[in-house]
């Protein structure tokens, strides 16, 4: 039998061999409640490193854009910068569950800074997403990034939805409505409304100023480093990241095992999407830290819950589910 210290090590770091050994040889040593307590412990140092890598990556790619001499190389760095922005929004998702830092203010700062390049308010995303967790599988379920299956059944509407061309007008429509005192339903307290109005106003103000200095010809830096990477590439990358979470699953059921999908993927893609492939685990236990989701997944697999075997298989299920929906 494994010693308790070995079990804790396996649970905390997610080493694949240790996890399998723990799941098969010591699964009865610790009750699930105790394992969840261990798995839910935040790693503030790890969170700081992830944010540092995100920031360094954005700066490095921005320098690549500005120093490149040819359009193909500029475009290459802009594509990667768009992917970095999409990755940042997955960090926002981690922060909104307060899984990054012990103090909520630090989660909000991290979530705001990583969400703003994708034109996302941390507070709005947080409470709309928590609403999604509460009501998934019901008619009340609605995400901030909601994908209507009917809009994805042909290539044209699929591409339009991926590009999310109405992202900017929808943002400002929401902002103007909030200025008039009309807030999204999930923002039920004065504190939430104050926070979301501040965030929307800051993001909208910076965007407006960036558009103005671009249009009148003062600088094209915002066009090169923000508008193109975000609107042309970042939105599409985020769309692809989000697709396998629930699409093609049976969202008419409350059972997380039926309306949500977990799939295996390689370590690089798992890092880019910040563990988003472990989505069943996340919905079952949303306060489990991202780095411990592989451990939880191994535990569930030992109990008989098999993940989709690959990223390709997950997207195949999405497509098959869409075809099935289309015949109904």
Q: How are the elements arranged and paired?
A:
Elements: H1 4-13, H2 16-25, H3 32-39, H4 44-67, H5 71-96, H6 104-115, H7 122-135, H8 155-163, H9 167-179, H10 190-215, H11 221-242, H12 256-259, H13 267-272, H14 279-284, H15 293-302, H16 311-327
Helix pairs in contact: 1-2, 2-15, 4-5, 5-6, 5-11, 8-11, 9-10
Short structural description:
By secondary structure, this protein is mostly helical. It has 16 helices and no strands. The chain is globular.
The largest sheet, given as strand count, sense and whether it forms a barrel, is: none
Strand tally: 0
Helix tally equals 16
Cα gyration radius (Å): 21 Å
Residue stretches low in confidence (pLDDT < 50, at least 5 long) are 1-22, 323-328
* Strand content bin: under 5%
Helix percentage range? 55-70%
Query: How many discrete structural domains?
Result: 2
Oligomeric state of this protein: single chain
